[in-house]
Amino acid sequence: MKTMKSGRLVSVLWTLARWTILPATLLAAATVQANDKLTLLTSWYAQAEHGGFYQAVAEGIYDRHGLDVTLKMGGPQVNGMQLLVARKADVIVGYDFQVLKNLEQGLPVVAIGACFQGDPQGLLTHADVKGLDSLKDKTILVATSGQTSWWPWLKAKHGLSDSQTRPYTFNLQPFFADPNTAQQAYASSELFQARQQGVEANFYLFADHGYPPYGSTLVTRRAPRCCSASMTQPWKVGSAT
Questions:
Q1: 159 to each of 126, 133, 167, how far by Cα in Å?
Q2: Range of the structural domain that residue 63 is part of
Q3: Is 15 helix (H, G, I), strand (E, B) or coil?
Q4: Where is the SsuA/THI5-like domain positioned along the sequence (predicted)?
Q5: Dihedral pair phi/psi, residue 126, rounded to 5°
Q6: Residue 65 lies in a domain
């Protein structure tokens, strides 16, 4: 089996994006060779937001376009950026702020696209909370990843304090048990689980309140041939080389 050179990786990613996140009518076809191998590491266990990737594998779409795609699931103990830089993955589903932080540290990474115009992250609260400006007396459950992404934004925007936070362990029982608790959530996950349990809850999508990042950013290593090209369209450089 063949492995891809760095210059060809971006061209392959363009085809990957074509069949997962972007309307086909907007994209030009990319040229790839048969058996090009690509490992995509998602940001979490299999979930609705990643459905397009799994569907493309199941229906043989990647195969028909000359891609041998291996999907690997992320999780709470998986450091996707570390695996990307170590070449254990070719593409990861990451976060805007994560990319910027790693660029500041000199790591050769680049964002090539995003699955969502806005981040699907938000805050799950009990029914008495009428907005994000009503959290100053609440305990807020924040995962480790949230401490360096959405929490600094929420804290600064609404005058909150680090002393209000407790670790979020991806278990909703603390939220169910304590009516004074709020927690991070996805509308397609934790909110759905709360409603299944009959818990009256509100969900506030951060993107609706000014949180700027895209959602589920696709990140890869920066190919040497792409270093001087526009970072917004690196696939064009890969296709031309």
A1: 20, 8, 19
A2: 6-118+214-240
A3: helix
A4: 48-218
A5: -75, 165
A6: yes
